[in-house]
Every structure is written in C-alpha cells, then in structure tokens.
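Hey,

Quick one before I head out. I ran the complex with adenosine-5'-diphosphate overnight. Inputs first:
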Amino acid sequence: MKLDVNALRYLTKDDFRVLTAVEMGMRNHEIVPAELVDRIAGLKHGGTYKVLRNLLKNKLVHHDATKYDGYRLTYLGYDFLAIKTLVNRGVFTSVGRQIGVGKESDIFEVATEDGTVLAMKLHRLGRTSFRAVKSKRDYLRHRRSFNWLYLSRLAALKEFAFMKALGDHGFPVPTAVDCNRHCVIMSLVQGYPLVQVKELQNPDDVFDTILGLIVRLAEHGLIHCDFNEFNIMIDNDEKITVIDFPQMVSVSHRNAQMFFDRDIECIYKFFNKRFNLTSEENEEQDGSESDGEGNSRPSFLSVKKAAGSLDKELAASGFTRKEQVEMEKYIDEDAEGHDSGSDDDDEVGDAVPIDSLKIDRDHSDEPNCTLASRDSGVPGTFSEEHGTSCSGENRLESSPSGSNGDAKEALESEGKMLSQEDEDNDNSSSDDDDEEEDAELTKKLNKQRKKAIAAAHGRRRPVSSRNAYKDKGKGTMNSKIQRQACKW
Ligand code: ADP
Ligand code: MG
C-alpha cells in the first residue's frame, strides 16, 4: 500500500482530534456514527463534519452510510495515528522508501534525528486472499465487534514482544525498538531475504546455522512457524538474521510438532532446490552430517526443551494469554497461507528518497504535542493517547482537555466510556485479569523500549524525547492537563 506521508504534514490538531475520535469510536462500533465522532471530538460549531470531509478526501477515514451515517478508520488513517505517536515520542523523524511488502505487512525505512535508519513494519492483517479473509470473518463473527485494526495491533504487539525476548536471549533478530498500534519499529537488517540469493560461499554452513536456530528456538520453547527463505535475511558475510514473528507458537502448542517439522522441511527443500544441497537420504549414502549429531534431520521429539523457557517468559510478560489465544486462532485459520507460498512476496515498492518525506517534530516547550509542519506553522496541541502503545507513559491517565470532558460524559452516558488506562481496541474494559497483565506488560515493554531507543540512537536520546519521559507530576494544573492532552 502506498504510504504518502506528505498529507501528514498538513493535518491540523483538529484533524487529528477527529481521527482519534473515530479510532476511539471503533472500540465499540465497526462503523462509528458521525454523531458519536462529533461528541467524542467535541469541536465547536459542527467543526467535526468539516474535518471529516477533509479526512475523507485524504483517505484517512471511510464513509459508510449503509445503515446510518458513519465512519471508520482506513489503514492509512491508522498508519498516520501510529506514525504521529512514534514521531512525537522521538523514535524517528522521517519516513522513507518502502523496503518490503509482506503478505500482511508493509515495511518502510524510517530515520531518526541523528540519521540512523530503522525499519518500520505496518501490520495489515486481513490483506490475504479472499478465502482466508472470509474464514477469518467467520471466526470473528461472534465477537462484539471485529476489527482488523485490532488484530493488526495484536500482531504488532506480539511481534515486538517476541523480537525483544529473542534478541535478549542472543538470537539473531532485528533489535526491537518500539511499537504503537499496528506498527513495529526495529533495526534495519543489512542484507537480503535468502530467497533473493542465488549463490552462497558456504551453503553447508548457512544450512547448519539455520537448522541450528530452529532447534535452539525449540529448546527455548518456541517455534517460528514461518521459518523459510522469505523470513531469513542474509548479509554479504553470510550472517543470518531471522525476521517475522507474529505467528510464533510455544512448543506446547497442540500442533507444535507439525509446525516444527514444517519449518525444517522448508529449509531442506529450499537448500536442496536452490543450492543443490544433499537431502537427508543422500546424506546417509555419502556419509555427510547435517546437524553435527548424526545424519538425520532434527526431530521435534529429540529436542531438549528445557534449555530455556522463553515461551513461559513471554506468556508471562510479553503478551497476554487472551491475546495469544486470539492470535493463534487467527493463525490456525490461515495455517496454509504462510510466506513460502507467495511468489510476489517481498517485492520492493516505490522508492522515495528519505529526505523528501521529512516529518517535523514539535520542539516547543510542551513535550511531544505535535507533528505540525514547519511549512504550515500550525502547532498541533491536542492529541489523546488511547492507542495501542507498548508503553505506559503514553497512556491517557486523565481527561485530556476541557472539551474532551464532554466527550467523556457523552460516552459515559451511553455506557461506552472505556477505561482510559486500557488501550485495547476491543472488549477491553471487561477483563480485569487482562488489564493487570496489560499493566505488567506495559511496564516491562516500557523499560525495554527506553533501552532499545537508546541503543538504536547509539548515544543519548534527543532532547525533546528525553523531555517526554520526564516527571509528569510537576507544573500547574493547566500544564498538567496540557501535557496529558499532548501524549500519544
Ligand atoms: P510479513 O509478515 O508480511 O511477511 P516480513 O516481516 O517478513 O513481513 O517483512 C517483509 C519483507 O520486508 C522482508 O522479506 C524483508 O525484505 C523486509 N524487511 C522486514 N523487516 C526488515 C528489517 N528489519 N530490515 C530490512 N528489511 C526488512
Ligand atoms: Mg515474512
């Protein structure tokens, strides 16, 4: 999907306020009644409707008048909300060219203030074949309101948590930097997907390394489930980096053995076909060994799964049980549709020079309020954190502004006011356990995020992003409210 972030520079605070109102409404409505958007946004003199027209023109919302006059966010609208949040946090300052198109994601380069280039993965669940979409719709039909944005957010959250945990345990994965909503920021992998590589200096070594990784993952309690030439990056020194984690499962999953064998089989097949590497049958004849322990392919049953308990660690910290179950249901539905089947995967999109899409971050005293354009000079001051950040510090902790108090009332009177601590897009206010787990997760990921951002920047954090992390308790009431309103 084309991501023209130019429009982002010209959106005003009211535009974002209304866009945010649509997102909030989508927690309870597939299509949000225009009137509800208006009440949440709380703009004066029917301003919401004018803004909605502008958002519609920029394809940030979709209008649906089938049952009533209503709106929903488009992926582009969701992209903008996530990008704005991350820019305001100081994670990156500009968006560049598209570097990858997955089945269910788009990957772009982004650059930090000091010029470090990172990768931004925007999850787009539901972009698969019609059949898959239909089966997922069937699965989702019992939900109070199903929501592709919600599933994409889950995928991002899971990917971020797994990437972080795997990196911490020494697996060759990109550095997990941050995530918000359906967007994951990670280090840019130097190299190419293995599928693009026609020749290797040491195919045997690479083959062994890759098989070793599958085994080591299982020893740590995890199976990648999409471990193939599309999700293995390799650089000029033939160093491997594994990517793409939303479908990972625990070795205790009921289909674990099948997933493990499938990952192994994908690697055998690919190396056999592309590099003419001997298969296990031939190995027995020519006496070569594939895994250093014998001449047979790694078997799930013989893997010692006690070396680590990453799956448990993740279940405890990275991703709530409920979310894991939701994702697994989704994955099960799509069990056949993994990357190896898609020929047009990973094609590179429009090349856009990274500087041409520079997004300016606000550098005013109020931290992280805006993504206003230097050209327009409009300092956006409203924004309301209720998105799907992995970080607690950007959560909405109190009513963000006077005018939004009205929205709160309106929603409460409808019985639809959601916990402001809760950023879940769906079913979120109902489950106390999950909220506790969310709070725990938030704390942990928050710490990780800070570390990762610092690591990615290599040095210190930019001043404005440091400001964003400062004590929120100081200052006048007004500035407190102002700060709250500014947090995304
Ligand atoms: P999907 O889940 O949609 O398959 P992937 O995570 O596999 O998405 O990414 C799709 C493509 O984007 C990859 O094949 C790769 O070319 C590129 N890509 C993804 N992550 C990175 C990264 N961190 N650095 C460089 N390229 C990446
Ligand atoms: Mg992939």
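The first helix runs from residue 6 to 10.

Talk tomorrow,
K.
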